[in-house]
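Worked example 3 (structure in, sequence out).
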């Protein structure tokens, strides 16, 4: 297991990004591995949606853990799990959940800094404690900030990038292995953050995102796709279902 964690960490190279076309179960993990994925990563919305739950830790933790075990057993590459805010009211609970994930064979976790109950973002010091508790498990922690998600697009500016970098440094000090900034799409801001960040940077590709090659030029170390793959799969399934059932009328 330690070898898988080390292998996963080594895949985070600025300028040579790890590509994670996000999966949601053991079957989709096997598809990604057969296609050549060097690691596989779940997306919380996808995992929840595939079981009929909404995102936001509505999926029971026990199911998330069981799903992680199934994925780990299905592939021979590192597995990283989107654990949202950690499924814990405090740092000790987050740490306990991280240890359970490690025992399941997981190599890494996503932890986000939004506050699901109160809204907004958690205080940097509080989030740092949660990240440290998870990192103490030995897992590779991808520390996500929701600054760009919760800030209107016109305000994605240098000041916001500065706030992100402050969080990045704090999360690095807490033991995170990479820094995730979903919804950041402006090339200048991405490049500036990559140049200064204390951690390898993870970008989520969206329709308005720069190309993979351009993100590599900007210094990105990890590119993920969030719920996009699951949504595309469900859209294709629904389109075929509508055709089939429509022909019965």
């Amino acid at each position: 297991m330690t070898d898988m964690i080390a292998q996963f960490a080594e895949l985070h190279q600025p300028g040579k990004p790890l590509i994670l076309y996000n999966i949601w179960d053991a079957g989709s993990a096997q598809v990604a591995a057969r296609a050549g994925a060097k690691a596989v990563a779940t997306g919380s919305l996808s995992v929840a949606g595939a079981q009929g739950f909404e995102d936001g830790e509505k999926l029971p933790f026990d199911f998330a853990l069981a799903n992680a075990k199934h994925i780990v057993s299905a592939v021979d590459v590192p597995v990283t799990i989107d654990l949202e805010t950690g499924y814990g009211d405090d740092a000790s609970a987050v740490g306990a959940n991280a240890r359970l994930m490690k025992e399941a064979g997981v190599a890494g976790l996503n932890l986000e800094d939004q506050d699901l109950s109160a809204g907004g973002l958690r205080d940097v010091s509080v989030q740092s404690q949660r990240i440290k508790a998870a990192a103490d498990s030995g897992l590779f922690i991808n520390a996500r900030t929701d600054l760009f998600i919760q800030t209107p697009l016109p305000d994605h500016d240098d000041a916001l990038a500065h706030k992100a970098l402050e969080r990045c440094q704090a999360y690095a000090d807490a033991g995170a292995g990479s820094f995730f900034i979903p919804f950041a799409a402006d090339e200048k801001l991405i490049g500036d953050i990559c140049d200064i960040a204390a951690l390898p940077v993870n970008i989520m590709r969206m329709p308005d995102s720069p190309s993979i090659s351009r993100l590599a030029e900007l210094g990105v170390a990890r590119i993920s796709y969030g719920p996009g793959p699951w949504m595309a799969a469900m859209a294709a399934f629904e389109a075929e279902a509508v055709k089939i059932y429509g022909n019965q009328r």
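Notes: The beta strands are 18-20, 40-41, 79-82, 108-112, 140-144, 178-180, 201-204, 222-224. The chain has eleven helices and eight strands.
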